[in-house]
Amino acid sequence: LFAVGALANHVRERLHGDATYFNVNQHVNYTNLCNRLCKFCAFQRLPSQEGAYVWTPEEAAERIKEQLDEPVTEVHVVGGVWPKLDYAYYLDLLRAIKAARPAIHIKGFTMVELDEIVKQAGKPELEVLAELREAGLDSCPGGGAEVFHEEVRQATYPKKMPGTRWLEMASYVHEAGLYSNCTMLHGHVETPAHRVDHLVRLRELQDHSLSKRTDGWGHLQAYIPLSFHPDNSEMADVPAPTALDELREIAVARLMLNNVPHVKAY
């Protein structure tokens, strides 16, 4: 691990010197209703369960207004996948947030959410993304990727869209001119081979983005290794990743994702 970490740090310094970057982020989780029923998730609820909620666009805007005295630069807008929310809801949500804080950067909707939004809109992906941008969407987060390999998907989140669709949706996001992040949920039932496969596919996604540009920058801005938290999930018996696991994931990602500029840690 020491040798891998030293190599990864060398790559980091070559890219960014001794600089580390931060942003001041506010979360707006507009609903916890979700019908994907991922076994690792402690956030999701069904309507009959205690704590289930859906915020109206106005309620989301109130959350933004509560933090107007804080130096927030970005709002992270994500939620569960709930088909009863129609297309207009998402447009109104973006408009309400922008109206509450016009200078805010909205990083909103994972590829999983966007897939559902496209279905609700009944329009082509690029048309939907253009309308979301007009309503206030500035970039997309990287969540919902989990682990792309189908073996892991079938074992832990079989109702969620395949990894191939996540990558396809991300390609549409990038074609629409939006930047995004990317993630992997590590430390549950996946193997090192599954993780390597996942990172290779992300690197290929960025290569595809780079092939469409002339300035040397791809549309994937940062990779975030997300550690599995077993508490209050259907996988509570699976041990959580250790601190050494976390360091290993960051180091290996920095070496493998040579075309993604940043590795982010939450």
Strand order of the largest sheet: 4-5-6-7
Residue share in β-strands:
5-15%
- What's the pLDDT, averaged over the residues? 96
Low-confidence segments: none
The secondary structure category is alpha/beta
Helix content: 40-55%
Largest sheet: 4 strands, parallel
Measured between the Cα atoms of the first and last residue, the distance is 21 Å
Order of helices and strands: HEHEHEHHEHHEHEHE
Radius of gyration from the alpha-carbon trace, in angstroms: 18 Å
Shape: globular
- The DSSP helix count reads 9
Task: Please count the beta strands (DSSP E, at least 2 residues each).
Answer: 7
Overview of this structure, please?
The chain is α/β, with parallel strands linked by helices and 266 residues long. Helix content is 43%, strand content 13%. The strands form 2 sheets. A 4-stranded parallel β-sheet has the order 4-5-6-7. Strands 1-2-3 form a 3-stranded parallel β-sheet, with helices on one face. The longest helix has 20 residues, at 192-211. The radius of gyration is 18 Å and the shape is globular. The protein starts with a helix and ends with a strand. 37% of the residues are buried. The model has no long low-confidence stretch (mean pLDDT 96).
